[in-house]
Amino acid sequence: EVQLVESGGGLVQAGGSLRLSCVASGGTFDDYAIGWFRQAPGKEREGVSCIINSDGNTYYADSVKGRFTISSDNAEKTVYLQMNSLKPEDTAIYYCAADPFPPLGGWGTISPSPAEFNSWGQGTQVTVSS
Q1: Alpha-carbon distance 2 to 5, whole Å?
Q2: Taking 90 as the threshold, does the pLDDT of residue 1 lie above it?
Q3: pLDDT of residue 96
Q4: 84, 87, 89, 99: which has the fewest C-beta neighbours closer than 10 Å?
Q5: φ, ψ for residue 33 (rounded to 5)?
Q6: Cα separation of 21 and 70, whole Å?
């Protein structure tokens, strides 16, 4: 089973940028999809962006399209989430997670379910001030 460690969170003003990193160890990185999820206080965990490492297929939630970019460095076993034009509503704990059986052809418009991901990092706090 793959182990995941996130980093890169912090406090930023609205309109600013952050880059989150998710470093994987163990498992076969190329076989996985890596997803970024976030959870704000009192809200359910939601899928933000995901990538299938073997073919580069990606998913973005509507709320982050055009602002966030996910990328994967398979040699470094690292997935990045570049977050630009941050808004106060982006404030949450961000988690990366691994799905060992990514959907063939990607997710389309269907939001990935956290239940599909069986390995989770510890989370990193992102706070966007207005």
Answers
A1: 10
A2: no
A3: 97
A4: 89
A5: -100, 140
A6: 10
